[in-house]
Amino acid sequence: MIRAGIIGSTGYAGGELVRILTVHKDVEVVWYGSRSYIDKKYADVYQNMFQIVDAVCMDDNMDELADQVDVIFTATPQGLCASLVNEGILSKVKIIDLSADFRIKDVATYEKWYGLEHKSPQFIEEAVYGLCEINRADVKRARLVANPGCYTTCSILTAYPLAKEGMIDMSTLIIDAKSGTSGAGRGAKLPNLYCEVNENIKAYGVTTHRHTPEIEEQLGLAAGEKVLLNFTPHLIPMNRGILATEYAKLKKEVTYEEVKAVYDKYYTDEKFVRVLEKDVCPETKWVEGSNFADINFKIDERTGRIIMMGAIDNLVKGAAGQAVQNMNLMFGLKESEGLELVPMFP
């Protein structure tokens, strides 16, 4: 059995990790870390775990934890993992960080967008960006994985094949994305109160959202060029799910069959990426509670643009599910182990 520890187990992503790992046949969670609930029973924080998890919450002592487990998940605010990790820890245990601390390769870019001094830049180059469908081979060899953000997972997977094949003008790429409120975390915040969110939709982080440089960097690597794009997120009144609608100018006239062949080239063998049938637009309800990413596209012959669409569950494929997918690869397990989650409907 793989012994796992979770730092930040009482946030939404941490709670989802617990839900998934509890039924993972090869994993035992032995450390439920939560700075806010030390010594409190985990099932008192999440009552859905009553008589399922019989453990109390512990602190975030990564040095002590590294001596007890094989893998550490850090589902924590930006900056914490970077402040705790060191060579001694990495020599003993694998780390999957769900924060942004090791996602962006340029330290200055990270510090600018997140407003933090990076505490362990020496590990940034080593860290593998854990988008399994793109970096699977590197993930298998990694001891430190940067689990991608939720918006970024959806945005990158949706456009990646066309960026990689050079079919779109990357300078024209615009991403309009919408997320359920769980993406903002479990902490109490005025903009996320029920009366603020219900019967409402709003854009936020316009031109400044922190996932922007992550998307630019990864799609830039795919396209082989520097990418600058407009990314605008929106908050909508539902619990979970992300829908990304992306627009770009095609470099030449193409048929549906030609574009579909490109998507099939990259995703036919990917269990968790489903390219939908022609004219079927992705919906968040179709992926809720699952590790799937549903993707499709529509060619606008009138404008010479292509509209790419993607949907994921932000807490599963956008966070905890993807983290478990990374863990499976790092330990040589079946990649889908623990993730055979049929989407919930309704």
UniProtKB/TrEMBL annotation:
The EC number(s) this enzyme carries: 1.2.1.38
Family annotation (SMART domains): Semialdhyde_dh (SM00859)
Localization per record: Cytoplasm
Keyword NADP: yes
Class of this enzyme: oxidoreductase
Catalytic residues, chain numbering: C150
Predominant cellular place of this UniProt entry's protein: cytoplasm
Residue stretches making up the Semialdehyde dehydrogenase NAD-binding domain: 3-142
Summary of the function given for this chain in its UniProt record: Catalyzes the NADPH-dependent reduction of N-acetyl-5-glutamyl phosphate to yield N-acetyl-L-glutamate 5-semialdehyde.
The name this protein goes by in its record: N-acetyl-gamma-glutamyl-phosphate reductase
Encoding gene, per UniProt annotation: argC
